[in-house]
Amino acid sequence: MPALLESLAELGEPTKVARRELVEGHVAARLRQGFSLPEIIEELLLLGTCIAEVSAATPPEDRLESSALQPILLELQETATAVTELFTQYLLEDQQGEKLHLRRLQAIAAEARGDDHEGGSPLRARLRKSGGTSLRRSSSGWPPAIS
Fold first, then answer.
1. Of 45, 82, 110, 147, which has the fewest CB atoms closer than 10 Å, so is most exposed?
2. Where are the domains of the chain?
């Protein structure tokens, strides 16, 4: 968070790319810590509120002018929007990967049941044909050992 605050002091395109990397790292850390998306967004917007309050409490001669403060607050709002988009994209990609793995598991299960798998022979028949590969149970019955 301190690095993100520092990057807000330098608005512009070069720091925007670096800031995005900082935000992505911060979001990843927060998610690993168990924070939810609304909490992460609230944290970013609260940061804007803190910046505005500190500016207001600063003596007038040292205070940021409103015109200098607005881009910083706008940048934080854009960052919150970017975090939401990043999180949504991650969820969609994760969901697609999950669906792919589910389809693969369904195909394996169908094959193990003996259903024809894309015109091929059932799994047990293929195992018998493989020359010596068999499934046998351990003394406890689980897990089956492959020999």
1. 147
2. 2-113
How would DSSP label each residue in 5-66? HHHHTS-SHHHHHHHHHHHHHHHHHHHHTT--HHHHHHHHHHHHHHHHHHHHHS-TTTSPPH
pLDDT in tens, 17-49: 788 888 888 888 888 899 999 999 999 899 989
77-134 pLDDT per residue, tens: 888 898 898 888 888 888 888 888 888 888 888 877 766 555 555 666 655 665 544 4
Q: What is the rounded distance in angstroms from the CA atom of residue 56 to the CA atom of residue 59?
A: 8
3-state secondary structure of 145: strand
Q: Tokens for 125, please give them.
A: 């028949």
Say if CB 7 and CB 19 are below 8 A apart.
yes
Question: What's this model's pTM, rounded to 2 decimal places?
Answer: 0.57
* Distant-in-sequence contacts of 58-65, Cβ < 8 A, 24+ apart: none
Long-range contacts of 87-94 (CB under 8 A, 24+ apart): 87/27, 87/37
